[in-house]
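Weekly structure sync, notes
Attendees: PL (lead), two postdocs, one rotation student
Agenda item 3: pending single-chain targets
PL asked that the sequence for the first pending target be pasted directly into the notes so everyone works from the same version. It is reproduced below exactly as submitted, 227 residues in total.
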Amino acid sequence: MEQRTYNQYCATARTLDLVGERWTLLLIRELLTGPKRYGDLQASLRGLGTGLLAARLKHLEREGLAHRVVLPPPARTPAYALTEAGEELGPAVLQLARWGLKWAMGERRQDETFHPGWAVLGLRACFDAEAAAGLHAVYEFRVDDELFHARVADGAVEALHGPAQHPDATVTIGREAFLRLTGQTLTMAEAIETGVASASGDREALRRLRGLFRLPSPRTRTADRTS
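Predicted structure, written out during the meeting:
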């Protein structure tokens, strides 16, 4: 597959030459939360055909943004992971996510897929470092059969797929209610009050949770015509 280029000696254009093709940044989004097997990427990126997925992965390998690894025991299976250069795209992807939460989300379209696990990156994007000052806690989130967790350490956060070994607090919520949380039509307090979510664990950790992850207030992109 021939690589298209903007043919501009500009840092932004050169970056878009590398990651601007359709699906490429979403592949990086998936790999920012850890190595993924080919099948994992297929499952998370429905609509991306196997041929194009293979081509995009080869592109990322060729350009030094991803490489092949073998997962540790007990998996011991081939997977893809980001290189140092690929990992350094993380802040840009997180900023795109924050922008999207504010300016692009709106209501879910009928044909759009949704995976609760995408919230792993969302937790990083919405993390309030100031609110986490002095806090050391591990939070586990259970959304139907999908588990992920966030480890908070005095203003820093690490969010990962899978269960936490020793969570200080656990939040359990159904998929539809979680979707409403993402779309900001439901708050966590409302979810707990109405019984569609539950929270257990250390009281102080649960009290601090409310301010740790702040979704930006949604805005409309419609131009202001009053002036």
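Discussion points:
- The radius of gyration is 19 Å.
- The CA atoms of residues 126 and 213 lie 5 Å apart.
Action: rotation student to compare against the earlier draft before next sync.
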